[in-house]
Amino acid sequence: MIWLAWRQFRTASYVVAGFLVALGVAYFVTGPHLAHVYDTVVKTCAARGDCNPVETTFLSDDAFLRHFGNVLLLFPALLGMFWGAPLVAREMESGTFRLAWTQSVTRQRWFLTRVALMVVATVVATGLFSLMVTWWSSPFDTLDAALFSNFDVRDVAPVGYAIFAVLLGVCVGVVIRRTVFAMGTTLVAFAVVRLSISHWVRHYFASPLHLTTAFQLPFATSNRSVKLGGGLKPGDWIVSDNIVNPQRRVIGHGGGFGPNGNVGFQAIGNGRTEFVGVGVCPNKIPASTGVARRDGPGAAVQHALNTCVAHFHLREVLTYFPSSRYWSFQWYEFSLYFGMAIVLGAVALWWVRARMT
After folding, report:
1. Fewest C-beta in 10 Å: which of 5, 21, 148, 213?
2. What pTM does this model have?
3. SS3 at position 296
């Protein structure tokens, strides 16, 4: 039975294996060079005082391969469509399942052998893909220091997505019994589940932390304009970020004000400057405020702007998860998808045994 299942599955597995080999060659040819550049040039930029151009140049290197890693977002869905959905639906559509069931093989063994082979292949393929992307992207991830921004395409979470997608496809194919329709339904259902969990469920895996701190202007010190305070780290996941006035009324979100969420200052005549969306500055701002500089305004302008901001006594209220919870969230999400996959597999097995004729 295993040999027969492999013969039916080997063409699809060869296609994925070829893709992974090609990607692996590209990654392993370019990866060591990226790591060397990061260790010898980027990590030492602070001593030379040229972090802005160095980091900008480094982040633009191998841009195609860097963004190609996002294919891992689609990879589980593709496996569910092209591996999972046709597994039983194609047999039902063509009627070949009746031949298998007239032999000495039971329905349960026929189903479980085929599904087990596919799940093992799914774990191996997705695990290798995620491992390569995570390893190759590690210099960029270290520089960006934004763990949760790449949560869906790193480490073990994609493996959980893939197992779920394949068993979702199997279950849909068992019920619908039409290959093309099952493939389309699998894609839509997988997308709905993924988006729902990432936007509305993930932040309930643990209780968030809360921080209230004085609002600070997000002056850029490099190409990564990150404003942190109160012990926050670059890798922390900020769930909500509200700016409130002394009356605790929310006047801004995400570190900005107004409909565009920007922090801006505008000259309003008579030497006065408006802190857009907040009020009029009590002090004068040097005329060079409007001069565009890659590393932000000069020291005198920064001091004047900070004086203006301090006048309004604004507070920034943040809800966040520390970066130390990254791995626990990875395993929580993997377990959630794996659990849903087990349920789908059980439903599909029951349907094969009780409803298929």
Report:
1. 21
2. 0.87
3. coil
Partners of residue 317 on adjacent β-strands: 212, 242
The yes-or-no verdict on residue 2 having pLDDT over 70 is no
Which candidate, 170, 202, 205, places its Cα nearest to that of 352? 170
Give pLDDT, residue 289.
43
98 or 339: which carries more pLDDT confidence? 339
Residue 240 pairs in a beta bridge with 319
Q: Are 122 and 162 in contact (CB under 8 A)?
A: yes
Distance separating alpha carbons of residues 180 and 3, to the nearest angstrom: 26
CA–CA separation, 315 vs 244, rounded Å? 5
Give, in degrees to the nearest 5, the angle at Cα 90 between 159 and 13. 40
Measure CA 149 to chain center. Answer: 5
Percent of the chain's residues with pLDDT above 90: 50
pLDDT for position 218: 72
Q: Measured between alpha carbons, how far is residue 241 from residues 171, 192, 227, 233 in Å?
A: 41, 26, 12, 15
What is the per-residue pLDDT across 155-179, written as a single tens digit (0 to 9) for each? 999 999 999 999 999 999 999 989 9
Where helices occur in the chain by DSSP H, the ranges are 2-37, 45-48, 51-60, 63-68, 75-79, 85-94, 97-101, 107-144, 157-176, 179-196, 299-311, 326-354
3 state SS of 16: helix
Q: Which two tokens stand for residue 39?
A: 């260790």
What are the boundaries of each domain within the chain? 2-205+326-354, 209-321
By the 8 A CB rule, do 198 and 190 touch?
no
Q: For residue range 329-353, what is the model confidence (pLDDT) as tens digits?
A: 999 999 999 999 999 999 999 998 8
Please give the DSSP secondary-structure letter assigned to residue 224: S
Beta strands across the sheet bearing 265-269: 265-269, 272-275, 279-280
Whole-number Å distance between alpha carbons of 16 and 197: 27
Instruction: Tell me which DSSP letter residue 42 carries.
Output: I
Whole-angstrom CA distances from 222 to 143, 333, 349 are 11, 33, 56
